[in-house]
């Protein structure tokens, strides 16, 4: 069975809902896809939480101050980044920093907020990644 370690950057309503869906569907992922899904890190703009063995939903209300940013996600050991932060169509931030860092590190990246893609979609496509954002 393949294990996928997932991190979520942007932990407002959409990020929290995404985490809840991932965690609630783990049994189905195992049965249907032979995939073990671990949520190893989540972070908002100023706080986050990580556990290499996987986070549980009841832990997600206890984010720790200072655990945030692209370096925090890189240190989490995640294979996949889900970027769900607020969209900023004028600067691409803050999601753009997470996306670029993840792609440069070779992580598969799922982008929920579109601001970073609108701002720098073409330049992000040229980053050396497994797959360009879509």
Describe the structure.
- By secondary structure, this protein is α/β, with parallel strands linked by helices.
- It has one domain (2-125): NAD(P)-binding Rossmann-like Domain (Rossmann fold, 3-Layer(aba) Sandwich), CATH 3.40.50.720.
- It is 35% helix and 23% strand.
- It has five helices and six strands, in the order E-H-H-E-E-E-H-E-H-E-H.
- It has a six-stranded mixed beta sheet, sandwiched between helices.
- Strand 2 and strand 3 form a beta hairpin.
- Helix 4 runs parallel beside helix 5 (115-125).
- It is globular, with a radius of gyration of 14 Å.
- The relative contact order is 0.18.
Give a brief description:
The protein is an alpha/beta fold and 134 residues long. The chain has helices at residues 13-24, 26-33, 70-75, 95-104, 115-125; strands at 2-9, 35-43, 47-50, 64-65, 80-83, 108-111. The longest helix is centred in the N-terminal third of the chain and has 12 residues, at 13-24.
Q: H/E order of the elements?
A: EHHEEEHEHEH
Rg calculated over all Cα atoms: 14 Å
SS element count, helices: 5
Major sheet: arrangement of strands: 4-3-2-1-5-6
Helix/sheet category: alpha/beta
Name the CATH superfamily classification.
Answer: NAD(P)-binding Rossmann-like Domain
Shape: globular
- Domain tally: 1
Task: Assign the CATH class.
Answer: Alpha Beta
Which terms summarize this structure?
5 helices; six-stranded mixed sheet; Rossmann fold; 23% strand; globular
Helix and strand arrangement:
Elements: E1 2-9, H1 13-24, H2 26-33, E2 35-43, E3 47-50, E4 64-65, H3 70-75, E5 80-83, H4 95-104, E6 108-111, H5 115-125
Parallel strand pairs: 1-2, 1-5, 5-6
Antiparallel strand pairs: 2-3, 3-4
Helix pairs in contact: 4-5
